[in-house]
Write a structure and sequence with these properties.
CATH superfamily: P-loop containing nucleotide triphosphate hydrolases
CATH class: Alpha Beta
CATH architecture: 3-Layer(aba) Sandwich
Bound molecules: adenosine-5'-diphosphate, magnesium ion
Number of helices: 7
Radius of gyration: 18 Å
Largest sheet: 6 strands, mixed
Distance between the termini: 31 Å
Strand content: 25-35%
Structural class: alpha/beta
Number of domains: 1
Strand order of the largest sheet: 6-7-8-3-9-10
Number of strands: 10
Shape: globular
Amino acid sequence: MIKDHESCIELRHIKKNFQGPYGRTEILKDVSFSLFPKSSVGISGISGAGKSTFLNILAALEKPDAGEVLWNGESIHAWSSKKIAQFRALHIGFVFQSCHLIPELDVLENLLLTYRILKVHVDFGDQKRAQDILERLGMISHSHQLPMTLSGGERQRVAIARAFIHRPRVIVADEPTGNLDETNGEHVMQLLEEMQAEEHTALLLVTHHAPFSQLMQQQYRLHQGVLEAL
Ligand SMILES: Nc1ncnc2c1ncn2[C@@H]1O[C@H](COP(=O)(O)OP(=O)(O)O)[C@@H](O)[C@H]1O
Ligand SMILES: [Mg+2]
């Protein structure tokens, strides 16, 4: 079991280049970063700064050109893709700009899907957890609605419920307010912060909207390939 002073995710000297129309661009130049249990970290940066690339590398959805990614203090370089997928599914919850809910499943079924991926039998405790978390996020009365019948803010609240449902150690949120108006954006941020504190999860938020990043305990800016502590 990992201790609170040990990082749950660490990046060491990460480099990433992409081939653009005018040659290769260094998106991440030499980025090192540690995410600690129960902490909240905001990373801001303009569109195109490399925020999503950073998150994708951290979550092993993309490979760096150089550098190391460590999960629980272990380099994942030698891990099989199956082991990486299992660790990610168990320990990392994702919230994206678009909610990525399954359109054919109702709200409750969308949440239970996480359990169906992780285990063979979904039991009464899992059902209860899904209901509790929907209640907590003010969505219980919408349990049997399809995503298309919800507003953008409501859909994002379901996406937050889904990210937290299996008690992952880390929540990664990539522009979670990007599709929302100001009021709904503020509400979603408030819920993310409250859930992070209540569930003792680490929260890593990337956003081009600096005021939201400033709500986190620690803040960084990604600028010209460099991650600067603020
Ligand atoms: N797979 C890819 N191939 C080529 N260029 C990419 C790829 N992914 C991202 N980029 C480029 O890298 C830069 C950073 O992208 P991204 O990480 O999405 O930035 P942000 O999330 O900060 O807006 C952009 O210029 C983007 O076009
Ligand atoms: Mg992005």
